[in-house]
Specification:
Distance between the termini: 15 Å
Structural class: alpha/beta
Shape: elongated
CATH class of the largest domain: Alpha Beta
Number of helices: 12
CATH architecture of the largest domain: Alpha-Beta Complex
CATH superfamily of the largest domain: Spore Coat Polysaccharide Biosynthesis Protein SpsA, Chain A
Radius of gyration: 22 Å
């Protein structure tokens, strides 16, 4: 067992590490080893793991580490946003480091990031580069390294640039997070994007660095299998819920998120019009063949534009994914979105 990090009860906790998990038994030990290593850089820190009702040995392995462990109750949705919410409520640190259970954390990055945040109070979030070995045998690394192996030991300061959003692991200032309203626990996708917009609307800054913050041990690519996984997990529905939540924030917020999802919407609208024209053609319509042909040509022109931007390889797969995930976005938009205040507070404490 790794020695527990120290805490200073007089001055409170400086950094809270919140780790979210769901069936990560193959990676959770490496993740927690890196998080505990990072926590030792501070005199006052805490580590809280929030598990989304894993069905494997994730929690059992995590119990070997000197950390607090919570499991989402059946009344709480299983999602990263729900885990972030519970972890935030149960932690007390001035800063919160959010990290997935399939990542290893760069301790030196966290130290430098806290120094930067202490000197720049206008920043609400600081995120770093997430190193992702390529999947399916084309790995950049034969064995994904720990994040601390990719650190820059001679670099005392981070190279920070302003960003409109953050994604993945991040260091968040609790005070600004609370002033913004916190995470929306009912979002099952795009929760960072939604929070980023609200933070910038409040006048807070978001920063990103070129230095590595973490290594993703389970990288994904946009394959058909990944598209199905995102749809089944509710990720695309979460994107639709973000659109729905933005209604409450006004026209500007809704326009922002709608524009961000424009390719999904455009692909679904294109397909809907094609199906409509085909049905009308079989019913009755002399001019419809030309309209159908023109609309298909317009769609192909759009695919060509995408190919120029993203490359011709996999363009069909990308378009099919946009269409398929677009259906999930529509579903999420039509579903009821409870208010964040309705989120239950009955997470199960394991340790």
């Amino acid at each position: 067992m790794i020695a527990a990090p120290t805490r200073d009860s007089e001055h409170g906790v400086t950094v809270s590490f919140v780790v979210i998990t769901r069936n990560e038994e193959q990676r959770i030990a490496r993740c927690l080893e890196s998080v505990v290593r990072a926590s030792h850089s501070f005199d006052s820190s805490e580590i809280i793991l929030v598990d989304s009702r894993s069905t494997d040995s994730t929690v059992k392995i995590a119990q070997m580490f000197p950390i607090g462990i919570l499991v989402l109750s059946p009344s709480q949705p299983c999602s990263p946003a729900a885990g972030f919410t519970v972890g935030t409520r149960c932690s007390t640190g001035t800063y919160i480091v959010y990290v997935g259970g399939d990542m290893t954390l760069n301790a030196q990055w966290v130290m430098a990031a806290v120094d930067f945040m202490n000197e720049n109070e206008g920043y609400a979030v600081l995120s770093g580069r997430l190193l992702e070995p390529r999947a399916e045998g084309s790995a950049v690394f034969d064995s994904p390294p720990d994040a601390h192996d990719s650190a820059e030991p001679d670099s005392a300061r981070l190279h920070v640039t302003s960003s409109r959003r953050f994604f993945g692991p991040a260091l968040v200032r609790r005070e600004h997070l609370e002033q913004t309203g916190g995470w929306n626990p009912y979002l099952t996708g795009d929760e960072e994007e939604e929070l980023s917009y609200r933070m910038r609307a409040r006048g807070f800054h978001i920063g990103t660095t070129s230095e590595v913050m973490a290594v993703h041990l389970n990288p994904t690519t946009l394959t058909f299998r990944e598209t199905i996984r995102r749809f089944a997990s509710g990720y695309s529905k979460g994107q639709g819920k973000v659109l729905k939540a933005s209604f409450r924030q006004g026209r500007k917020a809704f326009s922002h998120h709608l524009w961000r999802l424009k390719l999904y919407v455009a692909c679904d609208v294109w397909l809907a019009v094609v199906v409509t024209l085909v049905v009308l053609f079989f019913l009755d319509g002399d001019r419809l063949p030309m309209l159908l042909l023109a609309w298909i040509v317009l769609g192909l022109a759009g695919m060509l534009a995408l190919a120029v931007q993203h490359g011709f390889r996999g363009i069909l797969q990308r378009v099919v994914s946009y269409i398929f995930l677009g259906f999930g976005i529509v579903q999420g938009l039509l579903q009821r979105l409870p208010d964040s205040e309705e989120f239950p507070k009955d997470a199960i404490r394991i340790k």
